[in-house]
């Protein structure tokens, strides 16, 4: 005799979800599949960007970090990250790659936005290693898809907006650094002028 299991469904058919690392998908159907003579409900998830369909046990969805698309408010809050381009990361690319991979595995929209912002900023200064570039491309794809759904905007328009805001932040940080250096140099000159010995001043005259 087959055993049956009762599992509380968190998602419904036609809902958009985010599957960490995998990307944004849609619950196309919920199907019961027999495993070891036990019928188990599975989410059938279609991932448009990868053009792939995957099956996930309903009772493992939360464990795997699958979540609903962020709300419009959450999306706008996450985008504030693009206005800051100073993030502490490891100098060794392998350690840095692991840091960013861990953030993507967390799967929340702010962590994904942080990965995109951090790697885009680094990318403008130096070419990324192949693995980091792949991680960056995946993060951009996931974030662009989620933000386009959350904000009801075209995906290409969203990505252009992301890069523009990060670039503006980079330029702003660069300008602030230049102004800080200028002020420091001026302070050094003032200090030097006040410290000139009296006998050197007389010689100069």
Outline the structure in words.
The chain has 205 residues and is an alpha+beta fold. The chain folds into two domains: 16-68, Thrombin, subunit H; 72-165, Methane Monooxygenase Hydroxylase, Chain G, domain 1 (Up-down Bundle). Helices cover 52% and strands 17% of the residues. The chain is built from six helices and five strands, in the order βββββαααααα. Helix 3 (109-125) packs across helix 4 and helix 4 crosses helix 5 (155-194). Residues 1-5 and 200-205 have low confidence and may be disordered.
Order of helices and strands: EEEEEHHHHHH
CATH homologous group name of the largest domain:
CarD-like, C-terminal domain
**Gyration radius, to the nearest Å?**
26 Å
Total helical segments: 6
What's the CATH C level of the largest domain?
Mainly Alpha
Approximate strand percentage: 15-25%
Q: What characteristic shape results from the CA principal axes?
A: elongated
Q: Write down the CATH topology of the largest domain.
A: Methane Monooxygenase Hydroxylase, Chain G, domain 1
* Most strands sheet: 5 strands, antiparallel
Spatial strand order of the main sheet: 4-3-2-1-5
Helix content: 40-55%
Mean pLDDT: 86
